[in-house]
Amino acid sequence: MNKKTLAVIGGGAAGFFCAVNAARINPGLAVVIIEKTGKLLSKVKVSGGGRCNVTHGCFSMTEMIKKYPRGSGFLKKAFYHFFTTDTINWFNERGVELKTEIDGRMFPVTNSSQTIIDCLVKEKNSYGVEIMMNTEVSGLSMVNGEWDIAVKNGVSIRADYVCVAGGGYPRSIQYEWLQKIGHTIAEPVPSLFTFNMPGNEITVLMGISIEQVQVKITGSKLSAEGPLLITHWGMSGPAILKLSAWGARELAVKNWQFQIIVNWVPVYNEQSLKDKFQQVRFEIAAQKISNRNPFGLPQRLWEYLLQQSGVNENGRWADLPAKEQNKLVKNICAQEFTVKGKTTFKEEFVTSGGIALEEVDHNTMQSRIVPGVYFAGEVLNVDGVTGGFNFQNAWTTGWIAAKAIAEKSLLTGDS
Predict the structure, then answer these.
(1) CATH assignment of 5-189+348-411, given 3.20.20.60, 3.10.20.90, 3.50.50.60, 1.10.10.10?
(2) Amino acid 345: pLDDT
């Protein structure tokens, strides 16, 4: 009996995880990874500043799915097959211990993404998974009961099963070969990007990080809280990245030109902050406004807010005029900024869009349109906020596809 073959298109986290698990579950299955570039696991390498944010320390499915702007319903069902705990156990069983940081992100205790890469490569070697590098797939068709995978150098590859795990393509035309086999594509748009504010005075504060802010998109319901980093081009940090993920489609329609409102001290609104000011003016009346920042803000940011509000920095709290006080309250709780464009967050580009989820079985990751074709990772219309959630999608969908393919091949006697 001829040995059956699984071709995994894409050598990233989802593709690798599918390949090594399928080969392990059914050692009689020939598995090959087809990677279009000269690099494997490139996002694993750069994630978390080179430490690899493997997953997130969230053990409630109900809470976990709240971190996915798109695909939460699909993942809620998929997580019953392979969840955060399974990811932790999988790596732990292979000698890779993970640690949880205060914000919930999980990294290898070595603080090196190479630990994750080495683990996956070792697994590949143990189960004889083959790799084809610099091989870009351009088409897929069924020929005599086998999948014929056309690649751009003119050669074709034959396989009994195909798992598409090529990541999120930034342009819809790159999905054309999948549309040709009958799949619908949710239009791809960028997610996880930072906000550009060319010429804005706030950029002189580049490098300053604020622990907790609230950012709202003017004229919408979009809002996010978390740390914010001021950069030389505008704003970044978890609050901005979360907002860009939730607003990916709406902001794309605006061509990334919009207004935001920042509350630098989100425990207050304008009215409660006015009340706080009255208390402060009484308690530290004789002190200089610039020398005494009662809200825990970085000193340079405090001085910037005073300047933006026309406050005399050498003045005392007792002498703060009502007009300047009201401006300062407004700037602390609702400062407005104009965003003109976006910048990709480091190299961790994430795409919103991809294969329509109603066309994929969440129990197997098999196409409902084309039997024998499976999907895993970001090629699906699933994307999460920053913090390890996109990798968990990769591990979950990769594992489900691997298990389904391996078990199907075993049932047909291909072992």
Answers:
(1) 3.50.50.60
(2) 58
